[in-house]
Structures are given as C-alpha cells and as structure tokens.
Design brief:
Elements lengths: L18 H22 L1 H11 L1 H28 L14 E7 L6 H9 L7 E7 L6 H11 L3 E6 L5 H9 L6 E5 L4 E2 L3 H11 L4 E10 L6 H23 L10 E5 H6 L9 H11 L3 E12 L5 H21 L8 H32 L14 H20 L10 H27 L8
Parallel strand pairs: 1-2, 1-4, 2-3, 6-8
Antiparallel strand pairs: 4-7, 5-8, 6-7
Protein name: Biofilm PGA synthesis N-glycosyltransferase PgaC
Keywords: Glycosyltransferase, Membrane, Transferase, Transmembrane, Transmembrane helix
Organism: Falsibacillus pallidus
C-alpha cells in the first residue's frame, strides 16, 4: 500500500492550551459535576442510610455514583480540551528493531510478519522473533517468513517460560535507538510504524515510550468479540488519550508500543511480573520520563473469543495493575499528573468491589421494585458516559479512521451491550484478578 500523503489532522498550535490548564480545568468541571450529584442524591443517601447505616451508605453511593461521575466528568472535559501537538515529520527514517515474543503461534506468526513487511516506513526495520518454548510449528513458520518476505527476520530461542524472559533475550540483540514490541497475533496498519516513530521524535527529549493504538481484529467472530470491539475502540482508546494528554500513558502495552532502547535498559528491562509492560512503564514514569500515545499508529489484535479466555486476560491485567502499585506507589511519582493517574488505579479495587457486591445486587433488587441502591440517580452517570463515547467516536471516525482510509464496522448490538452490560462483567472479573494477586496464584502468560 502506498504511503498516506495528506497532512496529519491535528489542529494548529495557536489553539493549544497548556497541559496544566487542561488538568485543572478538567478537575474544576469534574468537581462541579460531583457537587451537583451529591446535592441531588441527598434523599437517596438518607433512604439507604436508614437501611445500612450512614457510613456504609456513603461508601456504596460514592463507589457507584459520586466517584465514577467525577472520573467520567474529568475524562469528558479532558477529551474536549485535547489537542495532539503536530508532528515534526510524517516520514521519519530512524532505524528500529521489532521484538516479537512467540509461544505456540504457528497459525499467526507468518501473517504478523507479513504485515510488518508491508509497512510504508522508510527507515530500516530489523525483526527478532523470540521463540519461547513453543511446541508447535512457530519456528518453521518464522523460517518460512525469512525466505518468502522482504523483511529482515531473525530467529532467537528462549527456553525459560515467560514473556519477560523472551523480550529481555531479544533486547540483548537490539542495536537501534528505538525498539518496538509487537504481539505475535497483532497486525499493523501499513502506516502504523511510521506514525509511531514520528510521534516519538516529535515528543520532548524526556519521552521514553509511545503506546500505539490497539484495536480488535476478530470482532466479527461472535457476539462476545463484538462487545470487546467497542471496549478497545472507545473505552481503552479514551483512557489512553486521557493519559497521553497528561504525559503519562500508564501502560505502553507490549502488544504494540515503541520504547527508547536506552530507557528500557536503564529501567532494568522487562520485569518478572504478570504485567511486565505495566511495571516497566511505571518504572519509566518514576524516573520522570514521559510516556505518550499515538492514535494514528493503529494495530489490530486478536481479542478473546471465549468468556474463559477473556477472564484470564482481564484478571491478568488486574493483577498487573496491583503489581505496579506494589512496586511503585503513586506518591513516589515525580509528576503531579502521574500521581493523580496512578492514584486512580488505587481506587479501582474499591470501585470494582462496590460495583460487584453492591450495584449488581442492587440492580436485581430494582427489578423487584426496591430502589435502595440502584435507582434513577444511578443513571446520572450515563449521560457523561454517552457524551464521552460520542466525542471519541467522532474523533476516531474523522481524525483517525478516515485519515488511514479505514471504515468503522457496523456493530450496533455490540455497542448497546457494551454500554449497558459490559461493566457488570468487567468488575467481577477484575475482583477475581485482585484475589489472585492477593494470594499469589500461579501466573499464566496466556
């Protein structure tokens, strides 16, 4: 595919608002929203307090209404104020190395490498596939790619199980200033690497990493993947944009991100953690380095097609977040924006627990006419959610997909189920992951 030549659709710098002003303006709007919510919820609070006592009522309502409303308002205002700085160039030529950790990826690795070979990137691309104790034909498929594709592919072997072992083995062979990690089932848009590198060289000198945009590639497989498509397209993307705006994307995900090689090595490489990419990112942030996000660097990954695999994945993500909090406390982060963003993560176990053990039972009670926990006031958060998703949908459609000559798939049923029911699944699964980490259950890469 030929390179996309038209200019990147970011607004002129004369409209740019300083990050500090965006931060405090968004907080002011969120605080105002929460104050209004509290005033309107006073009767609800009194009624629930008469049943479960006032402290417990405060804990429940704060967890299902006040705090989520505040966070959604902060997200909404931040997205409205977000203006991605213009890139210095659309056609960088810096050499890059790609690391692909592969464990039993016989049916996917060739296609992943093929998509890398079709990149319109003008710089040199060196690829290392690190076979991590595969028992299938991963090595043979990699060898086929070496012969058939116009791409520099190198094969490495790492017998110690664990993605961090494979990536650290590959890191020893990296000679370029930038290293990109790509999952073995992730497909890159033809201009993806070009935009990822362009964002990095356009960032301030203290930038250590840039997270790419990861979307679902198998959304048509079944209803479950259709729902997840919207999570990646709207939910995860909105959080990434928020965090990137405040110079601290909390996860430069291993599925597709670019790092400065020297920064990865100085941070100690990928750690022995189930969320190795989370802990590595937080180590970088702790060193007062910045981590950004580039929405135009689009990739497509295979999302879990069964509930069982979904639970494993999201529980693993929840455990990774706890690992990061255990190693690096929010108050140890030097930048105020990162202190705030990682502090939100400290609230997540509480919010997920309240949602699981209060909101879901409250929803059941509401069906029987008992509106003690779930009632009209709980719908106060819904408008903010729909508005923020609408803003991101418009952004994704006109500033990302149209620019990349992509079309948004029609998936109305998936969207409806995502909005009204996805959190009812996500919160219990996350609680399950927190319990796993609390009792240090056995880790699983997949």
């Amino acid at each position: 595919m030929k390179p996309i030549q038209h200019s990147i659709p970011y607004k002129s710098k004369k409209y740019y608002v300083l990050v500090k002003r965006k931060f405090w303006a968004s907080h002011f709007f969120a605080l105002l929203w929460m104050i209004i919510s509290i005033l309107l919820a006073t009767p609800w609070l009194k009624d629930l307090a008469a049943i479960v006592t006032f402290p417990i009522a405060i804990m429940i309502i704060s967890g299902i209404s006040f705090i989520p409303g505040y966070l959604n308002a902060f997200l909404l205002m931040s997205l409205l104020l977000d203006r991605q700085p213009k890139m210095k160039t659309e056609s960088p030529e810096e050499p890059v190395t790609i690391l692909i950790a592969a464990h039993n990826e016989e049916d996917k690795i060739f296609q992943t490498l093929e998509y890398i070979s079709l990149q319109d990137y003008e710089g040199e691309i060196e690829v290392y596939v690190i076979d991590n104790a595969s028992t299938d034909g991963t090595i043979q498929e990699t060898a086929r790619a070496q012969k058939e594709l116009k791409l520099s592919v190198n094969r490495l072997s790492e017998e110690n199980p664990g993605k961090f072992h494979a990536l650290n083995h590959g890191l020893q062979h990296v000679k370029t200033p930038y290293v990109i990690t790509v999952d073995a089932d992730t497909l890159l848009h033809p201009s993806s690497i070009r935009y990822l590198v362009a964002r990095m060289i356009s960032c301030p000198p203290d930038a250590a990493a840039v997270a790419g945009s990861v979307l679902a590639k198998n959304s048509r497989e079944n209803l479950w993947t259709k729902i997840q498509e919207w999570d990646y397209f709207l939910g995860i993307s909105s959080i990434k944009r928020l965090q990137g705006l405040y110079q601290g994307t909390l996860v430069a995900q291993g599925a597709y991100s670019l790092y400065k090689t020297a920064a990865v090595k100085e941070a100690g490489g990928w750690p022995d953690a189930i969320g190795e990419d989370i802990v590595l990112t937080w180590r970088m942030l702790e060193r007062n380095w910045k981590v950004y996000y580039e929405p135009l660097a689009v990739s497509f990954t295979e999302v879990p097609s069964s509930f069982k695999h979904f639970v494993r994945q999201r529980a693993r993500w929840a455990r990774g977040m706890i690992e990061g909090l255990r190693e690096i406390k929010p108050w140890k982060q030097p930048l105020i924006y990162i202190k705030y963003l990682t502090s939100i993560n400290m609230l997540m176990p509480y919010l997920d627990a309240v949602y699981t053990f209060a909101w879901i039972p409250g929803l059941v009670l509401a069906f029987f006419g008992h509106y003690w926990i779930v009632g009209p006031m709980t719908l106060f958060v819904l408008p903010l959610t729909l508005i923020s998703y609408s803003i991101l949908l418009i952004y994704q459609k006109y500033f990302v997909f149209r620019h990349l000559l992509l079309n948004i798939r029609k998936n109305t049923i998936g969207f409806i189920l995502f909005v009204i029911g996805y959190q009812m699944i996500m919160s219990p699964v996350s609680v399950y992951g927190y319990v796993q980490e609390l009792f240090r259950w056995k880790r699983h890469w997949k």
